[in-house]
Design a protein that fits this description.
The chain is mostly helical. It contains 13 helices and no strands. It catalyses: 2'-deoxyribonucleotide-(2'-deoxyribose 5'-phosphate)-2'-deoxyribonucleotide-DNA = a 3'-end 2'-deoxyribonucleotide-(2,3-dehydro-2,3-deoxyribose 5'-phosphate)-DNA + a 5'-end 5'-phospho-2'-deoxyribonucleoside-DNA + H(+).
């Protein structure tokens, strides 16, 4: 198989495994999605959804986030990692939305990445899920799976992984591929204890093949023992 044939095989397999893959961050509009994705950096979607369940009841518009002291917003999201920094970014972001965009989330990628706390990944998630613009956001799951399946090299940067996926995946499949790669990484090809025995893509995964070799776990334990002592 060449690279595109291999990618097609991966895409078709993921489609069979996760036909209904979707964004798992709860939101009802582009503004809520932007806040949720900002909060999700170095934090699980599950935790973010628990926090936003009450957060989105209290804060409906950018003006609402600016109507309270920073300390109060910090307390509202304190279960989220880096909550102080994220609270400050939310208020800065809301001020820009009001001053520059009439309180609305801009639809262009280059405008989104200029907002505090919004990087390339967040912008890709927002444009693809809120505005229907094809994009591939590379989070930790997408990066790990892409490298394990040799779509990208082990030392590729996040941007390099994104570019390789954009080249190999048909544009009209970018967004759903992003979701399916996340589902595959979150529920099957986990960072720790991936389900290699039941993996339909094991033939493409060097790491998985090593894990499946007889005595692989024993060897790993012996290596750890030798390193530790």
């Amino acid at each position: 198989m060449n690279a595109k044939q291999k990618m097609r095989h991966i895409l078709d397999t993921l489609a069979e495994m996760f036909p209904d893959a979707h964004c798992e961050l709860n939101h009802s509009n582009p503004f809520e999605l932007t806040i949720a994705v900002l909060l999700s950096a170095q934090c699980t979607d599950e935790t973010v959804n628990k926090v936003t369940a009450s957060l989105f009841q209290k804060y409906k518009r950018p003006e609402d986030y600016l109507a309270v002291p920073l300390e109060e917003l910090e307390q509202d999201i304190r279960r989220i990692g880096l909550f102080r920094n994220k609270a400050a970014n939310i208020q800065k972001l809301c001020r820009i939305l009001i001053d520059k965009y009439d309180g609305e989330v801009p639809q262009k990628h280059e405008q989104l990445v200029e907002l505090p706390g919004v990087g390339r990944k967040t912008a890709n998630v927002v444009v693809s899920n809120a505005f229907g613009v094809p994009a591939i956001a590379v989070d930790t799951h997408v990066e790990r799976v892409s490298k394990r399946l040799a779509v990208a090299k082990p030392d590729d940067s996040v941007l390099e992984v994104e570019k390789k996926l954009m080249k190999l995946v048909p544009k009209d499949e970018w967004t759903i591929t992003h979701h399916r790669l996340i589902f595959f990484g979150r529920y099957h090809c986990k960072a720790q204890n991936p389900d290699c025995p039941a993996c339909p893509l094991l033939d493409l995964c060097k790491e998985g093949k090593l894990r499946m070799k007889p005595g692989a776990k024993t060897k790993n334990k012996e290596v750890k023992r030798s390193v530790n002592g």
